[in-house]
Amino acid sequence: MDNNNESTSDNAGSDWQPVHGKRKGHGSPGTSNQPTKQTRIDEYLPPVSTHNKFGVLTNGSDEGNQDNQQSQSDTTKDADNAVRVPKPPPIVVHDVEDISNLTAILREKIADNYTIKAMKRNDVKIMLNTVDAYRDVLKVLREKKMQLHSYQYKAEKPFRVVVRNLHHSTNVDEIRVALEEKGHSVQLVWNARHRRTKAALPIFFINLAPAVNNKDIYKIDVLLHTKIKVEAPHPRTDVPQCTRCQSYNHTKRYCDRNPRCVKCAGLHFTKDCTRKEKDENVKCVNCLGNHPANYKGCDVYKQIYKKTFPSLRKKDVRPSVNGGEVRGVGESSHVRAGTSYAEAARQGRRQQEQIDQSSDTSGSQPRVSDDMTDLKIMMRQLMEQTSSILNMVTALVSVMSKND
Fold first, then answer.
1. Considering the chain, what percentage of its residues have pLDDT values greater than 70?
2. What's the pLDDT tens digit per position in 75-110?
3. Total domain count, the chain
4. 184, 215, 231 - which closes a domain
């Protein structure tokens, strides 16, 4: 029984055929649907085996080139990662009557490792190539009591930040210790005060020693259990003035000139002046005018400020109705005391309406005269065309009368 079943299943399996879909083909029923494209043959001939006996040398040279390229790239990266040493600042020597004495001192100290530039009023600028030469020359010139000033070396300039929202009575030593615990080297901490009232503000200035992690201080938001905000200081918008010699574009820390008083222009420090009270008889060191040397309205200060901060565009000045001048965009206008914003706005609107009316009335007269001229031209053309038509009609009538 079992054998018959197995034979029956084998016969059924041998007679089984797969059922294809009823999709109609384009060919005849006896042909198959297999692709008839010719097989692509890339090479009709078998490849020829070759052997290069210099292959070993080629591989060795390639490896050597790769090693050289790798070493060159490593050298370039090291050069890029190396810290660039900034050039030393210049030294400006004043009141130089004989340049040979100065050049003799320079040659004796640093040989030919310098360049000089002659400036106005017998001033000479000395540019050194190395920091060591700069320090040696500065030391020698100071020992000879020469009138000079210099600037801070850029590599030694501290990294200054502003810390806000910290109470003004906070101890500066505690701030220093807290920042040093966070990995910063603090040089100086001081509290900011109001410029006029001299009142203490919740703002502290902090000088950090130059380091790689200086900018990490901006990530600090809590200091001494206080929510703070660390910012970069605002850029200066004025010309620095030395409080020792009262000249501009340098500070007293790097100045070795004779002291001058800000009040009387005397050869002494301002703190040593005998004038302790306000006095109208003052004298400016720079322009010799009747004002203190730190007065922002000084003509010398205005010239230097205009040269240091040139204006981006000229101010637009328009003529007004009364023949005066109307301030343009970007120019400040002064409002009288006791005038509200609404009154000032109405006044400005009235001035604008007067300007518009004056422009309309001034432009109406030439516009009317132009219209009259155009009308006269049109009438003249019309009269000429009418006369020509009348001449043509007269000639036509005469011709018709002759034919009759």
1. 65
2. 555 555 556 778 899 999 999 988 988 999 898 888
3. 3
4. 231
Reported as a pLDDT band with limits 50, 70 and 90, residue 218 is very high
C-alpha closest to that of 150 among 19, 251, 258, 9? 251
State which residues form the domain around 198: 158-231
Q: Are residues 140 and 185 in the same domain?
A: no
Q: What is the 3-state secondary structure (H, E, C) of the chain?
A: CHHHHHHHHHHHHHHCCCCCCCCCCCCCCCCCCCCCCCCCCCCCCCCCCCCCCCHHHHHHHHHHHHHHHHHHHHHHHHHHHCCCCCCCCCEEECCCCCHHHHHHHHHHHHCCCEEEEECHHHCEEEEECCHHHHHHHHHHHHHCCCCEECCCCHHHCCEEEEEECCCCCCCHHHHHHHHHHCCCCEEEEEEEECCCCCCEEEEEEEEECCCCCHHHHHHCCEECCEECEEECCCCCCCCCECCCCCCECCCHHHECCCCCCCCCCCCCCHHHCCCCCCCCCCCCCCCCCCCCCCCCCCHHHHHHHHHHCCCCCCCCCEECCCCCEECCCCCCCCCCCCCCHHHHHHHHHHHHHHHHHHHHHHHHHHHHHHHHHHHHHHHHHHHHHHHHHHHHHHHHHHHHHHHC
- pTM value is 0.54
**Close Cβ partners of 314 (under 8 Å, ≥ 6 residues apart):** none
Mean of the per-residue pLDDT values of the chain: 78
Predicted pLDDT at 113: 83
In whole angstroms, give the CA distance from residue 289 to residue 221. 50
In which residue are the tokens 């490849």 written? 47
